[in-house]
Amino acid sequence: MELNVYLAGQIHDNWREELRQLADEEQLPLYFFGPMENHSRSDNIGEEILGKQYDAVLKDEAASSFNNLRTEILMQKADVVIALFGEIYKQWNTAMDAGAAAAMGKPLILIRPADLHHPTKELVNKANVVVETKEQAIQALSYVFETD
Amino acid sequence: MELNVYLAGQIHDNWREELRQLADEEQLPLYFFGPMENHSRSDNIGEEILGKQYDAVLKDEAASSFNNLRTEILMQKADVVIALFGEIYKQWNTAMDAGAAAAMGKPLILIRPADLHHPTKELVNKANVVVETKEQAIQALSYVFETD
Amino acid sequence: MELNVYLAGQIHDNWREELRQLADEEQLPLYFFGPMENHSRSDNIGEEILGKQYDAVLKDEAASSFNNLRTEILMQKADVVIALFGEIYKQWNTAMDAGAAAAMGKPLILIRPADLHHPTKELVNKANVVVETKEQAIQALSYVFETD
Amino acid sequence: MELNVYLAGQIHDNWREELRQLADEEQLPLYFFGPMENHSRSDNIGEEILGKQYDAVLKDEAASSFNNLRTEILMQKADVVIALFGEIYKQWNTAMDAGAAAAMGKPLILIRPADLHHPTKELVNKANVVVETKEQAIQALSYVFETD
Amino acid sequence: MELNVYLAGQIHDNWREELRQLADEEQLPLYFFGPMENHSRSDNIGEEILGKQYDAVLKDEAASSFNNLRTEILMQKADVVIALFGEIYKQWNTAMDAGAAAAMGKPLILIRPADLHHPTKELVNKANVVVETKEQAIQALSYVFETD
Amino acid sequence: MELNVYLAGQIHDNWREELRQLADEEQLPLYFFGPMENHSRSDNIGEEILGKQYDAVLKDEAASSFNNLRTEILMQKADVVIALFGEIYKQWNTAMDAGAAAAMGKPLILIRPADLHHPTKELVNKANVVVETKEQAIQALSYVFETD
Amino acid sequence: MELNVYLAGQIHDNWREELRQLADEEQLPLYFFGPMENHSRSDNIGEEILGKQYDAVLKDEAASSFNNLRTEILMQKADVVIALFGEIYKQWNTAMDAGAAAAMGKPLILIRPADLHHPTKELVNKANVVVETKEQAIQALSYVFETD
Amino acid sequence: MELNVYLAGQIHDNWREELRQLADEEQLPLYFFGPMENHSRSDNIGEEILGKQYDAVLKDEAASSFNNLRTEILMQKADVVIALFGEIYKQWNTAMDAGAAAAMGKPLILIRPADLHHPTKELVNKANVVVETKEQAIQALSYVFETD
Question: Is F93 part of a structural domain of the chain?
Fold first, then answer.
């Protein structure tokens, strides 16, 4: 059995790569999907494909249509979703993806630092499991495959 | 025909009351639902019902379970969802509710100031319609009932 | 028992009003919904609510977001959908609505002149019943209530 | 990861073959499905299997039953749907398929020339992304697999 | 609380009227729906609305499209379905309706004489409850409302 | 707005009546449904309707078919489910109903004494909210309607 | 692309084997599933696994539980369902399976002799395509894979 | 064709291993999934991943979140669910899983000793097939693959 895992969250550091390495070390049969991790490409993909837009709002609308297409295709392929929240970014799209995952019946693992407990409290309650570190998220997925 | 409207968003000012008044002025057959708007009660409802918890994280977890129960019951009753985003608050639960609404096939109206276009871009793309003011949101709902 | 009926199709003549009158004459407990029938308002609703757009494409995109919001809310309320096709207009949105209705499991009545049989053939096959006149569509709905 | 792509649209030129070649050049793991592209066979398949029908309407009804069977089987297998609209043909079945795809939660890419913006405006609003050329549609799908 | 009950089965005797009377005697808040009970009208409804068809097969196809429209609308309104099987008629449409009801998650009550046990055995296994008489079917529904 | 509440749990004492009284005192617009509360009638309903069965296993199978019909009809009508667990009874059907409610997307309130925490731990985790007393369950439902 | 095909219908002759051979001759990538074709085993499977039952009704109930388990598992795996009706047997379970397939959104091919048109008319109308012979059913499936 | 089988039930003896061996002897293409069978690990997994909790209730809540994540992921992968009930344990989570499986439309095989017929009667009625031994459960699954 293999599991597809969608990784929702910010694209400002390499947390997805760290998760991949942790999973590789454990030789877990996990396939990770996620959004475009090159930030400027993610912001520019609308104009890259459709050409120059009139203003920044329309540039964002164009970009988000391709980003959401990607997310929607990959989320439907996912057996489980990991959403990561951190101190710095607004990450409304991460919260949107987490809400969508829960509503679609996709099991949801939430990673967030403990001191974010107040603004994430409804997300925490919606998730299947909540952890603070990437290592714990991998432990949670490893546990699905373990037999003793 | 009447419509149930769930109002997702922050509970720090009286924007829901303003929407209700605008709808009343237009005599629209709209029933508005939403979260508990008394902020401290919303934060304390867990301990109010279950008693003192060990720490602030658990207090939040207790409160969010009752808040999410309320949201889930009312969102299932809703024919359309309005989600409001503003400058000040994190509002991750609002984004979560918007994502859930879209995934549940509930028509979604987004209200956000234009200069929030970048952090809300995936939400904007997911919503059925996006407006900047409460008046416009009511115009959108009024339009559903108009015949010329 | 009452039935909600969504009327998909062009808004260039008063066919919906004719249907309403036929239903009234039969005293059928039918509630008819449909798109905005004032054509220029339907085209301008985006700029009416959101203000002037950059060009005609964006004006159309703005308008269609409000028109689709209306359609989506009302289609979800509908127990049965009537889609009308005629000689003159392209009515791709009518075909889109008919396809959506079938995919949502909404019973679908198609009205089309017999000589349109070739371009409508996949729609005809998808519909529950196919008729050529408004009178026949009302007969079909009347039959749902008749006991002998 | 591989993606199944259903190609809805007219069968009067070789646009599907062009898409396949573009995908091959990029070595994208895409499997394309679509309707019978031999036009006269698509029109005659009903009589080919069931024998001579009484008239042209019934010939069309017979043919469309096999065409819709094919579409329904393949659309259910699809991870994403591309619908193409052009200047010449009515293509109501394409609009029907696009409406069905959206209602089934299948991500939808729309290809249409910009000057068709008015009659396609509700379709445009329903699609996840809208492009004008086949190259752009392949770029959109390529973007789903790219990592930087 | 009221319940809508769809009555699937043959239309050759007045078993539905008997059920209605039994429910009235018990003053149960049940609303009964069902197919057209006038047999020749049910067979002729296609030609009544669409006009003369080429042959008996097409006449049947026309009639069944209106009969199935009626069934589909009413079955979607139903909270529970009663399907009756008897000795005389083939009633494949009754079995089809029962299979559809089970697949739609509609609770299903089956009425059949005990000596039909062999040909109805898969239907019996699919139904929620199986009884032999109309009185027993009403007892089953009455039990839903009773408190001691 | 009114809410239908299904009360899953043992039928050996009058806990449902206590809940009803608490709701009445608060004048909450709640409609409570539940299983047959007359225990011997619940055990005998199969033989009451179908007549004497061969043995106790078949008597139970007959009874449970009518009990499950009742539960299934009423659970589908419910906006929210309350499941109560206590010290004494096996209550496997209660746990089954709670699991079904969660899988159906029905919001779930669990009432259980704290010292049952170990055997109910997976149920606790599945429920939307968990309380220890009937008063708390009513507080949770009251909170859905409160505005400050 | 491969397709799983569930073959619903009587088990009194080798029509399934004929279909398999026709598909093999065409080298179609079809996997056929169906009920137990050994008739006496199908009737006895309940007592074979559970032991002697009290009477013929209970023997049938036991057998049908294993037959329906098989059908339900395999129908969920199927991409398309073929249901065959013939002159001799009542085949209510076939009609039940056909109704379930349609309600589950499984594309449905119906095979029936033309002179059965009257008792199968609602089934005919529910099916995606209707043919008279096994060869035609294979042609319909072959058409799904053909490109010109 | 291969089938994924989720094994719900107690983890106090090696009944799952016995089932696996029986399936191996028959060379059935079955993949068995289930909960963590190491009992103390199942109880401690919450603290193992999240660290020491305040009390036994919270320790259980932490553990059950990881256990339910595992169950939810694996149940969604399952084609059929086997639930085993025995004399000794409360097994409320087993009953919850069985209720969830039925509500999710997963075919359900129940294993229980005959003398547990009374407390399991609603579960028995909800299951597709009910047997008393592991050998019978394997016979039921073997029957799905047999052709004569």
Answer: yes
Interface test with A, best of B6, B61, B122, B131 (most A CBs within 10 A): B122
Residue B26, φ and ψ in degrees, nearest 5: -85, 0
Which of B91-100, D8-17, F16-25, G85-94 is least confident? Answer: G85-94
Q: Are E43 and E53 in contact (CB under 8 A)?
A: no
Rounded to two decimals, the ipTM of the complex is: 0.95
- The number of CA neighbours under 13 Å toward the Cβ of E98 is 33
Would you say residue F49 lies in a domain? no
Nearest CB neighbour to G103, from listed E100, E125, E126: E100
The reply to whether B42 falls in a domain is no
* pLDDT at res. A89: 74
E132 C-beta neighbours (distance < 10 Å), count? 17
Query: Which positions in chain H touch B58 (Cβ < 8 Å)?
Result: 54, 58
Among residues F140, G145, C141, D43, which one has the least CA distance to residue E70? C141
With beta carbons less than 8 A apart as the criterion, state whether C52 and A54 touch: no
| Cα separation, A129 vs A125, whole angstroms | 9
Residue G118's contacts (CB-CB under 8 Å, 6 or more residues apart) are: E56, E60
- Domain holding F27: CATH number? 3.40.50.450
Look at chain G and report how many structural domains it folds into.
1
Instruction: Among B80, B130, B143, select the one facing C36 at the smallest CB separation.
Output: B143
Split at pLDDT 50, 70, 90, the class of D87 is confident
Q: Are E7 and E141 in contact (CB under 8 A)?
A: no
pLDDT at D148 over 90: no
d(CA G133, CA G114): 10
Are residues E83 and D83 in contact, defined by beta-carbon separation less than 8 angstroms?
A: no
| Alpha-carbon span E144 to H93, nearest angstrom | 27
Residues paired with residue H82 on neighbouring β-strands, in sequence order: H7, H109
- Percentage of chain A lying above the pLDDT 70 cut: 100
Dihedral pair phi/psi, residue C45, rounded to 5°: -60, -30
Domain that residue C105 falls in = 3-34+77-145
Mean pLDDT, residues D128-146 taken together: 98
Asked if H33 contacts A1 with a C-beta cutoff of 8 angstroms, the reply is: yes
Instruction: Report the run of H or E that residue C49 belongs to, with start and end.
Output: helix C39-50
Low-confidence ranges of chain C (pLDDT < 70): none
Structure tokens at G15: 């029509």
**D54 touches E at CB < 8 Å:** yes
Comparing B61-65, C89-93, G13-17, which segment has the lowest mean pLDDT? Answer: C89-93
Over residues D62-76, mean pLDDT: 97
Distance between CA E41 and CA F38 in Å, rounded? 47
Interface contact H5, partner G, CB < 8 A:
no
**pLDDT (tens place) for every residue of chain F, 148 residues total:** 899 999 999 998 899 999 999 999 999 999 999 999 999 999 999 999 999 999 999 999 999 999 999 999 999 999 999 999 988 877 899 999 999 999 999 999 999 999 999 999 999 999 999 999 999 999 999 999 998 8
The tokens describing E99, both together, are 């299979």
- β-pair partners for H6: H33, H81
Model confidence, pTM:
0.96
Is A41 part of a structural domain of the chain? Answer: no
Q: How far is E52 from chain D (nearest CA, A)?
A: 13
Say yes or no: B120 contacts chain A, CB-CB below 8 A.
Answer: yes
Angle at which helices D56-77 and G134-145 cross, to 10°: 60
Q: What is the rounded distance in angstroms from the CA atom of residue H3 to the CA atom of residue G73?
A: 9
In tens, the pLDDT along D3-26 reads 999 999 999 999 999 999 999 999
Q: Check: CB of residue H84 under 8 Å from CB of residue H10.
A: yes
Token representation of residue B72: 């889930």
Whose tokens are 């990029």? That residue is: D26
Residues 89-118 of G with CB under 8 A from D: 105, 107, 109
Q: Which of E130, E140, E147 sits opposite F37 (nearest CB)?
A: E147
